[in-house]
Amino acid sequence: MHGNGVVGGVADGEGRSRRGMLRAAVAGAGAVAVGGAGAGVAHADGRRRSAPTFVIVHGSSGNSYGYAPLLAELGLRGHRAVAVDLPGHGAGAYLPVSYQTQDLEALKSEPSPLSEVTLTDFVAHVTAVVRRAHRVGPVVLVGQSMGGATLNRVADEVPELISHLVYASAYCPTPKHSTLMSLMMTQEGLTSALFKIPPVRTVPGLGVNRVNWRSGDPALFAAAKEALAADWPDAEVRMQLNLMEPDESAALPTSDASARPERWGRIPRTYLRFTEDRAIPPALQDLMIREADELTPRNRFRVRSLAATHLGPRDPREFADELELVARLCR
Description:
Pfam families: Abhydrolase_6 (PF12697). By secondary structure, the chain is α/β, with parallel strands linked by helices. Helices cover 34% and strands 12% of the residues. The chain has a single domain, classed as Alpha/Beta hydrolase fold, catalytic domain (Rossmann fold, 3-Layer(aba) Sandwich), CATH 3.40.50.1820.
């Protein structure tokens, strides 16, 4: 999701097509969330079937590790919560050797297994987690940034297993704008600061959108900070960038992730608006909320606004407070 140019698989080094820029922008957006989760589960009393389990889905370039503070806070409050690593991420991530050694020339062409990963793979993985979590009680499915596309599709698969959906400044495609790219092409989406993040100009056909988060280029750091966490101290931004992963499948931005009113549309849902978000600007968040509500006028978003940037509240207690309010709605 970024881009002051083309990120990912189809950059040819000459011009930067509008399509390529949008692929890049969508590919990196949302990466890690503050309050994310280091491959783990926060356990409360597993015998309390009435208490929900929070299943948290990260965005592009992200993983479960970024949610460790949120998992810890939820666990200390007595909640069950798990942050999912999507296929090709977290413990199963592939970090190109050229990325780790900062061989910038090789980074343009080194293959990545993420080129074979699809949104369908994400959905199958998260659906399996939801099925397991549902065995011990209600499930609240939470997605941040690009994780919203997975939420839509999982909700269509198993609406009967999900008590509530939470979109944390997340994409929510509908038939009007069925893909992430189509949302980014709207007037509201084109204001995203993600387009300022320079991508790796990969060779044609590589099949991944690639961002060199470990670059020493001050311009990349400045652009990433503006898009993801403009008001955070530089040291905290650098720590978050170190958690992020360089590759994402180039197929994801153009995959149909639109929600179906007869299945997804029957699940209660909350949208957490991040009012300081420059990656998915508030205007784009509002567009998605409006289009979703038009799709299911009898089951509209419950909307909450937080003064947070794209990575979410710096204090995980603020995120946990909102999830606790949702948990009460599930009782």
